DNA sequence: CTGAAAGCGCTTACAG
DNA sequence: CTGAAAGCGCTTACAG
């Protein structure tokens, strides 16, 4: 019997699983976690003394401390940080809003932000916007409502005025990968323009003139910058660009495949392709693998195994982890009150030649 | 001249950047975000009326509501969820502790957990344990102190008794990928044993008898199960296993490379390798690419571009997203009070043949 | 339809 | 060395 049904009381260690879980469940429903007040009562001390012990503050005799510790363990007390936060102001947590945690570019970036947060004693709350501006805003504001100390945002939208009340009130904010829209905020970027320009110039240097560009939706800053890099490299070489050589849009395999196949057919097919990001590159590699005539390829973003493909894939690489680390460090500088002026930080890209970008035109 | 120095007041839109930021900074220092009390004062209503409007509760005239809304916008009010949580009990957030967000296996898993959380109106807080049991415990307890409603854990350690007080008090918990140690908790796993056994049997069916196994540290449940699958397949085929054919340990490239090279040299080299996870597989692919004699390979875990390598890499695949989704759904079932008995859920694996696993022994 | 009072579980500021 | 009181910003339970 247990105490509710009036039957025999079974020691907890011997209790059948169902009973223990029912207990657990009841506990959950009534939310009866022990509080400092409970600990104080059990230890026969005041509330403030418990607080001192829990927070390792000085001014408690060894004997008192021991009694409090015993009560803490007996009750299974754990400080409620929600209450603490309410009093102290800071939550020791930061928010990260990105496009998709499952993307191999954002995983390392997120991890890097987490490591910096950890070094500052903060937890990371993250959310994926799925490239949807409304969802980005929803997430950002939910994080603000939780009173995160700061926010790292890889924006999906291009209007961030909804953040103004938060900024005014002191929420530290750093944008990464793409700049904020309509507001003045810190941003850490890769040199998307320069990287793309160099990658395309590399293809031109290897004899190509009909070069295609397949990128993400033009409203995405990185996509627009890389396209600009492509156009600049072509213009610098005095090569006029035909409309059919550029294709921007969602980067799902179907669309990219179609775009690549169109550029590669017709009377004047491209002899080389510049792929605007890792997802595009991978799909283009698949398309090229099905064709007999060699086509040169340079992709923006490095990816695992790029060196093991035949030929190895030449890429313009950016350092996702460094992007995250830099942004997070700036965020904590803001929180320390060190930074007053929003700044734009641009990290360099690097060309890695592996074969695909050095193929001559198959004319 | 601004209001602090006593000089001319410049309208905010025209204020030099530094001044606006100084203001922002001052606001942050004093933490003076508007509260419901401020809104109530400005709108000339009671606190409870503001609460009603903010939470969309009925019983407010259109006119009153409008006045409150105006005050909210004028002040840039945003409800403080920390305070709300303190009163309501639930935080509408769940925690996810995994090994490394940057690992291509965990990214999709994390994203899947996030999607389920989102469908239940909850945010996701995640942390990487870096395969360190102490760090796992630290993270889990920090999440409990924040009073997450539930916890999804990919454990690094093998003793989770530290969670007992939390479980007793009703924190919903689901383990994923590996079971909990020393406590009774829900767990969602892949069929690591069966998957590895089938993969090795596949190599045996293609004529191999000297088959190597390279896996993760044996204290990791998945590594131990996959090794058991390997041994079982070998035993089922009546093939005695030589010690030098199995190598378990950290999966960094250096160690894996050395392990592979040792198995592939000597008087009786292996003719096939079973790689215990995605990181191992990738390194083994590199080692094999440097050798002239073909060696068969089957890897546990699928990875991008496995089909484009020469030969394509045969793998045993598990569904990381499905693992995360299943775990998160079970977590919310627990929170809804539906589940009373901890359960073990095992998801199937699948063999994908692409060439590398069908190579005959090069004897 | 509206609001004053009490309380969630802590920390702060102060007094003994 | 120790503790009672006030308050963080909300919601709950209740009264008008």
TrEMBL record, chains A, B:
SUPFAM superfamilies: lambda repressor-like DNA-binding domains, Periplasmic binding protein-like I
Name of the protein described by the UniProt record: LacI family DNA-binding transcriptional regulator
Native source species: Streptomyces bluensis
Gene3D superfamilies assigned to the protein according to its UniProt record, in alphabetical order: 3.40.50.2300, lambda repressor-like DNA-binding domains (1.10.260.40)
Keywords, ordered alphabetically: DNA-binding, Transcription, Transcription regulation
One of the record's GO molecular function terms: DNA binding
Pfam families in alphabetical order: LacI, Peripla_BP_3
InterPro entries associated with the record: HTH_LacI, LacI/GalR-like_sensor, Lambda_DNA-bd_dom_sf, Peripla_BP_I
Superkingdom of this protein's organism: Bacteria
């Amino acid at each position: 019997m247990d105490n509710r049904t009036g039957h025999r009381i079974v020691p907890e260690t011997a209790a059948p699983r169902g009973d223990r879980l029912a207990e657990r469940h009841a506990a959950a429903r009534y939310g009866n976690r022990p509080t400092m007040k409970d600990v104080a009562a059990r230890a026969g001390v005041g509330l403030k003394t418990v607080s001192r012990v829990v927070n390792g503050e000085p001014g408690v005799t060894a004997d008192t401390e021991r009694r409090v510790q015993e009560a803490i363990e007996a009750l299974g007390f754990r400080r409620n940080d929600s209450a603490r936060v309410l009093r102290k102001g800071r939550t020791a947590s930061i928010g990260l809003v990105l496009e998709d945690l499952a993307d191999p570019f954002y995983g390392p970036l997120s991890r890097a932000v987490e490591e910096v947060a950890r070094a500052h004693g903060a937890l990371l709350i993250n959310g994926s916007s799925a490239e949807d501006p409304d969802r980005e805003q929803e997430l950002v504001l939910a994080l603000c409502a939780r009173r995160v100390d700061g926010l790292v945002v890889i924006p999906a939208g291009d209007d961030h005025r909804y953040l103004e009340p938060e900024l005014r009130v002191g929420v530290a904010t750093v944008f990464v990968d793409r700049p904020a829209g309509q507001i003045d905020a810190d941003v850490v970027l890769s040199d998307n323009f320069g990287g793309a320009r160099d990658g395309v110039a590399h293809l031109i240097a290897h004899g190509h003139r009909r070069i295609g560009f397949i990128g993400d939706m033009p409203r995405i800053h990185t996509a627009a910058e890389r396209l600009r890099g492509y156009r600049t490299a072509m213009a610098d070489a005095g090569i006029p660009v035909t409309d059919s050589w550029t294709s921007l849009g969602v980067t799902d395999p179907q669309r990219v495949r179609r775009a690549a196949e169109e550029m590669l057919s017709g009377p004047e097919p491209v002899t080389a392709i510049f792929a605007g990001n890792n997802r595009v590159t991978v799909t283009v590699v698949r398309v090229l693998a099905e064709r007999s005539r060699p086509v040169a390829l340079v992709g923006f973003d490095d990816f695992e195994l790029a060196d093991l493909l035949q030929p190895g894939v030449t890429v313009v690489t950016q350092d996702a982890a460094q992007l995250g680390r830099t942004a997070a460090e700036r965020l904590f500088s803001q929180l320390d009150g060190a930074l007053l002026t929003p700044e734009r930080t641009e990290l360099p890209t690097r060309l890695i030649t592996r074969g695909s970008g050095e193929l001559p035109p198959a004319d």
